[in-house]
Amino acid sequence: MNKPATTLRNRSFFSFTLTQFFGAFNDNVFKQMILMFSLILLETDRQGLATLLFALPFILFSGNAGQLAERYAKSQIMRLSKAAELFIMLLALLGFYLKSEALLLFTLFLMGAQSAYFGPAKYGAVPELVEDRILINANGIIQMTTFLAIILGQALAGKLLEQYQESLHVAAMYLVAIAILGIVAVYMIAPTQANKPDLHIKPNPFSSVIDSLKEMYADKPLFMALIAGSFFFFSGALVQLTINNYGLTLLNLGPGGTAGLLVRLALGIMIGCLMAGPLLHRITGKWTIFIGAVGVCICEFSLYFYHMPLGAIHGLLILAGFFTGLYYVPIATFMQSRPALGKKGEILAAYNFSNFVAIFCAGGVWQLLMYFEIPANLVWWMISGLLLGLLILMFPHLKRID
Fold first, then answer.
1. Is 219 within the bounds of a domain?
2. Rounded to two decimals, what is the model's pTM?
3. Which of 53, 347, 350, 402 is the 20 to 30 A CA-CA neighbour of 169?
4. 249, 377 contact by CB (below 8 A)
């Protein structure tokens, strides 16, 4: 088995970062195209339904995915997952050609399933590729490049929707090309070995998740990180749906301008992730999370006032993203470093499960908000209020997350 690298300047970590980049890039081009497909072409907001279908596979398959990430080499699982992504993107091309919402939603479900199996292997591989002492810096780079991929993916989705609105199957060819680049990158990662090659795969997909959640509940710092991280994904899903509706219906920006709002947010998150590492060397994780959460609350609360100049809205989104990065990096690092070797895959699968239960709930909440015709600017107040409430409950326990 290869030893974890002592520096981030090695081929496997670079290739891993590229693999993650192309995966996040493709995810965001594809999901944003489908979310905007309903808003623009179907003239109805079914973003919540799309979010529900993308999140559902994580709830169904995360348990088995975590076991497989320990039973087999994580590099092998990542390679198979990237091959599956290519097949799914070809199916998406067909869906866009036929303009079939049903086929596209099914494809989104498959993409969620692919990501569910890719996630535990991906996150569990990081501590196997680099030493613990540089894990924070590694996560900073991974999160930064991931959100760079989000920026580029959402920007490209907006451009593709504007340019190929009547022939979206042509735009889908970009998805196929990106999937091929991801396959090339994943094969450049040095092969890893299985941690538990004799592990018995439990037939009940939820038993492993439930066991892992019980273990995390017994470890209070880990459980607090689980709650904080899952809220990040809940609010993140709501924020994306809110921005799409906010940009199209309240600001009248069109798909390109609305994608620009998401780009500003992702740009801020990228900067925040990059700055989180150096900040954590100066202050504790508790205060990094606290500063991030308070900053997000202030910025999101201010976005209620959508009549302000567009430049001010862009600035608030960049700041909201920046504080979001400060909030999340310490949590992600703690979730990776806390579990013992041999348990990381299953613990991280349970974390994935919890995150996507949160995203699933966000999709349901959004559909409920649309049913009652709640305007997008009022949703900003709801999201910031929930984060403020969580921070008040969580603050006494944050000192343990360092």
1. yes
2. 0.81
3. 53
4. no
Radius of gyration in angstroms for the set of CA atoms belonging to the chain, rounded to a whole number? 20
Tell me the pLDDT tens digit for each residue of 26-55: 988 998 888 887 777 666 778 898 899 989
pLDDT at residue 59, rounded to an integer: 87
Structure tokens that stand for 232 in this block: 């990040």
Q: What is the CATH number of the domain that holds 180?
A: 1.20.1250.20
Q: Where are the alpha helices (DSSP H) in 310-343?
A: 310-337
**What is the distance of C-alpha 382 from the center of its chain?**
21
Residue whose C-alpha is closest to residue 68's, from 120, 1, 109:
120
Write the DSSP symbol of residue 266.
H
271's tokens: 């900067």
Question: 387: how many CB neighbours lie within 10 A of its CB?
Answer: 23
| Residue 112 belongs to a domain | yes
Domain that holds residue 80: 11-193+207-400
Q: How many domains does the chain have?
A: 1
Strand, coil or helix: what is 5? strand
Angle at 189 between CA 55 and CA 155, to 5 degrees: 50
How many Cα atoms within 13 Å fall on the side-chain side of residue 184?
8
Query: What per-residue confidence (pLDDT) applies to 210?
Result: 86
Find the helix packing angle between 254-280 and 135-163, rounded to 10°.
170
**Which residue, among 77, 83, 89, 81, has the nearest Cα to 31 in the 3D structure?**
89
Do residues 377 and 306 lie in contact, with contact meaning Cβ atoms separated by under 8 Å?
Answer: yes
In this predicted structure, the answer to whether residue 401 has a pLDDT above a threshold of 70 is no
In Å, what is the CA distance from 315 to each residue of 110, 155, 295, 302? 36, 17, 13, 11
Per-residue pLDDT tens digits for 55-74 = 998 888 877 887 888 888 88
List the one residue out of 219, 269, 351 whose CA is nearest residue 28.
269
Q: Which amino acid is at 384?
A: S
Q: How far is CA 103 from CA 46, 81, 94, 270, in A?
A: 15, 21, 8, 33
Cα-to-chain-centroid distance, residue 22: 13
Mean of pLDDT values over 301-316? 97
In a domain, 19, yes or no: yes
pLDDT of residue 184: 95
Residue 138 has pLDDT above 60, yes or no: yes
Asked if residue 2 is part of any domain, the answer here is no
Three-class secondary structure of residue 130 per DSSP:
strand
How many Cβ atoms are within 10 Å of 96's Cβ, its own excluded? 24
